[in-house]
Amino acid sequence: MEQYLYANYHQKVKVCSQIDLQTTLNYFARPLPVTFRFHGALIEDSNENVKAILDEWKEILKNWPDSLYGINRKPQPIAWMGYGKAWRLGSGQVALRDAPADSHLGKLAAWLRKATAYGCVVRQEEASMVPVALLSAVEESKNTKSMAINVADVCASPGSKTTQLVDAFLANGSSGVLMANDADLKRASVLAGRVTKACQLIGTKSLIVTHHDATKLPLEILANKFDYMVVDVPCSGDGTVRKDVHSRKEWCPSFGASLHTTQLRIALRALACLKVGGYLTYSTCSLHPIEDEAVVAAILRKLKGTVTLKSTQHFLPSLKRRPGLNTWSVVDDELTQFENMDEAREKASQPFKKFARRTMWPPDPGENFNLERCMRILPGDSDSGGFFVALFHKNTSIPLSSSNFNKQTKKSSDEQKQEKGIGNGTFMTASPEMIKFHEENFGLFKLSSCDSDTMVARSRKPKRLWSMTSEAASLATTPGLRTIGGGSLVQLNKRKKKVPNFET
Q: I want to staple 188 with a disulfide (CB 3.0 to 4.6 A). Which of 3, 105, 182, 406 is the partner?
């Protein structure tokens, strides 16, 4: 990102005041502090290894002088997350990595590597913790609580928010399902391993991991399915420049404009999957209004009262935030301002011209969308990255026959392979013959001991078996849902023994 382009862009668009802009630019020049949160369920675990790791953490804090400052400053709790749940270091990643082993920071680095490997802590950027913490606060505010809560993270990779959902909604013994989805098969596979480990640590098998383009989530299966949803959409990432130096040079207004339509389609699709009465967070790590408030306004305009944009002021009260924007300017990469789409289509520079859509401009004066209810987090607010969050509540069911959902789009190569039976295959309930074969040939323990769960397999010649709760297995084995993992992987065929074809 060219700094002058970024500064001039934000001045032109009026994203924040001149003072806040200068503060933001100053923070962007500093390394992003390392932040982490404890795996909530493990803090109370009686496991001796967990106790040893927590005792070591307490000892590190006890011996750390309060007088040190700068990168050697004593770790500080992130207050809005609840005391002791999450922490912010004084150093960035490079200083932490290069710290002398016998220094306070070096000892912390060694402890952090060990605690992360065991699963006691999750490295996660502070602002990224907000969407799930917000949904958790909503649930805690309810007078009556359900033990069967279905939650979903529709753009889940790399999985930090998904593991936070595990803590927030599965650690209390919920009998619901957590669905983690990603459009990229390789990312989804890595995600499955990471989140499955988090679930195994707290003893839950309610997870399923799916591989779908989030703009094409199968509504015939998922419509009105989830109580809470996290929708952290792909974005231009101009709020992440403190940790991604390459984005400083690559960012331009047209990058965000190119993602606007996809972001809107993902959010609309997710809202169709939300239960009536459910809550959804729409978030980006961008400060670009076209990716933020413009998408929120377009949602409210298209869904016409079926969803409400909720205020977040009474949730997470110690979190410093800014209100959303009700008006903004739309400019191209030359920072030329345009009053409407027609003017931009005629006069804007490429590639912005081809990306221009009517939904990118601010609402008309008569459209009272209360966009100030959205949440903006600037880097100077809590020494974090830039972030945007909007909280939606679903009032009534969304007609799936509307033009928002029935458009035909070209199928991806992955989708075409799925239809031909190539790739991941379909999950199915494991037959008694499958289970017996694996017990006799590969089993280290009796798989039938998982009698309270459902065993599932990916094909009729399974090299792997998963143990899931009946609720998760029921969803995972639904035809048309591209499940790639979940629950607990209880059997892996590592021997070169031919697996027979089990007919169902």
A: 182
What tokens were used for 352? 């912005």
CA distance 209 to 153: 10
Contact 237, 208 (CB under 8 A): no
161 closest CA partner among 148, 146, 180, 137: 180
Expressed in angstroms, the distance from the first to the final Cα of the chain is 56
70 three-class SS:
helix
Instruction: Find out whether 54 and 43 touch, Cβ atoms under 8 Å.
Output: yes
Question: How distant is the alpha carbon of residue 455 from its chain centre?
Answer: 28
Q: Where are the alpha helices (DSSP H) in 100-218?
A: 104-118, 130-140, 160-165, 185-202
The whole-angstrom separation of Cα 225 and Cα 398 is 13
DSSP state of 64: S
Strands 464-468 and 454-457: antiparallel
Amino acid at 328: W
**What are the residues facing 455 on neighbouring strands?**
467
> What strand order describes the sheet that includes 488-492?
428-429, 454-457, 464-468, 488-492
Between residues 503 and 328, the one the model is more confident about: 328
For a pLDDT cut of 90, what percent of the chain falls above it? Answer: 60
* Phi, psi at 386, each rounded to 5°: -80, 145
* Amino acid identity for residue 109 in this structure: A
Q: Please enumerate in sequence order all residues whose Cβ is within 8 A of that of 333, keeping only pairs 6 or more positions apart, or say none.
A: 252, 253, 254, 349, 351, 352
The one-letter code for the residue type at 203 is G
Which residues contact residue 471 at a Cβ distance below 8 angstroms, ignoring those fewer than 6 apart? 148, 175, 176, 177, 206
Give the C-alpha separation, 365 to 233, whole Å. 28
Task: Quote the pTM value.
Answer: 0.92
Which ranges of 71-124 does DSSP label H, i.e. alpha helix?
A: 93-98, 104-118
Neighbour tally for 327: CB within 10 Å = 13
**pLDDT of 404 higher than 70:** no
AA letter at 425: G
Q: Which residues contact 131 (CB under 8 A, 6 or more apart)?
A: 161, 230, 232, 281, 283, 389
Distance CA 253, CA 271 (A): 27
Question: What is the C-alpha separation between 91 and 33, in angstroms, rounded?
Answer: 5
Whole-Å CA distances, 316 to 135, 313, 320, 321, 386 = 10, 7, 9, 10, 17
Angle subtended by helix axes 48-63 and 104-118, to nearest 10: 160
Q: Tell me how crowded residue 340 is: count the other CB atoms within 10 A of its CB.
A: 12
* pLDDT, tens only, 272-325: 999 999 999 999 999 999 999 999 999 999 999 999 999 999 999 999 999 999
